[in-house]
Amino acid sequence: MTDHVIDAPPRPVLPVAGTHKTFPVRRVYCVGRNYAAHAIEMGHDPDREPPFFFLKPADALDATGTFPYPPASTEVHHEVELAVALGSGGADIAVDRALRRVYGYAVALDMTRRDRQAEAKAAGRPWEIGKAFDRAAPCGPLHPAETLGHPAAGRIELSINGQLRQEGDLDQMIWKVPELIAVLSRHFTLAAGDVILTGTPSGVGPVSRGDRIAAKIAGIGELHVQVT
Q1: Do residues 214 and 224 touch, judged by C-beta distance below 8 A?
Q2: What range(s) does the Fumarylacetoacetase-like C-terminal domain occupy (predicted)?
Q3: Is 43 helix (H, G, I), strand (E, B) or coil?
Q4: Rounded distance, CA 204 to CA 45, Å?
Q5: Most exposed: 134, 181, 184, 224, by fewest CB within 10 Å?
Q6: Domain segments of the chain as ranges
Q7: CATH number of the domain at 13-227, please?
Q8: Could you read off the pLDDT of 191-227 as tens digits, one per residue?
């Protein structure tokens, strides 16, 4: 028995590595231009200016291993990122207490309709049409921090059809994970189920139907995605 006037939609979840359990997702926060080399390739100053954020809908996270090429776009780019899943939250979280909120980590992609994003930027409009489309964030299984630890360094890379496109290291993030959590918590009350995508290294570029994407982060694992 329910008081809903329509059937409640299922809550998005991510698999937890090595188990049959899932992690229910509440919100997805993304940080822009968090690697200096990527900021430069996008035409911006890499100085350590305050981080800025945008959101993707929770159901943009997708663990199926496929990425359907979105409609109304002819230039869709890959961006490999470290995903941070929170097991608890709060407001005004201190940097030295931020990692206590982390449940685990995963390899993720921030897929971007670059043509639609560029049009929005030029018109001074929000980016959602370029960032928040259906299944815009392929994601691998979560690895709990209690077994993995908290990776502050490690190679991050992405290949398309076996050819290396992106490479960097987690220690090249301008704003580190504890800092991102602390800054976000000044603007939003964070909660269990929130996921943070932490930015991408340089080398972003287009994908095409039929491409095979292989994303890796040392110590965390691999994510394989077929573009359809």
Answers
A1: yes
A2: 28-227
A3: coil
A4: 17
A5: 134
A6: 13-227
A7: 3.90.850.10
A8: 999 999 999 999 999 999 999 999 999 999 999 999 9
Contact by Cβ (8 Å): 139, 109? yes
Residue (of 96, 102, 76, 95) closest to 185 by Cα position: 95
pLDDT digits (tens, 9 = 90+) for 35-48: 876 554 555 556 66
And the tokens for 8? 């409640």
Backbone angles phi, psi at 3, to 5 degrees: -95, 0
Written as one string, the DSSP assignment of 52-74 is -EEEE-GGGEE-SSEEPPPSS-S
Convert the pLDDT of each residue in 77-98 to its tens digit. Answer: 999 999 999 999 999 999 999 9
What does the alpha-carbon distance between residue 121 and residue 197 come to, in Å, rounded to a whole number?
21
Q: How far is the C-alpha of 139 from the C-alpha of 141, rounded, in Å?
A: 7
Using the structure block, give the residue that is written with the tokens 């690697």: 35
Q: Which residues contact 129 (CB under 8 A, 6 or more apart)?
A: 113, 116, 117, 120
The count of other CB atoms within 10 Å of the CB of residue 23 is 22
**What SS3 class is residue 86?**
strand
Angle (CA) 223-69-194 rounded to 5° is: 50
- CA dihedral of residues 28, 12, 209, 203 (deg, nearest 10): 20
Dihedral sign computed on CA atoms, order 32, 36, 42, 48: positive
Q: 58, 27 in Cβ contact below 8 A?
A: yes
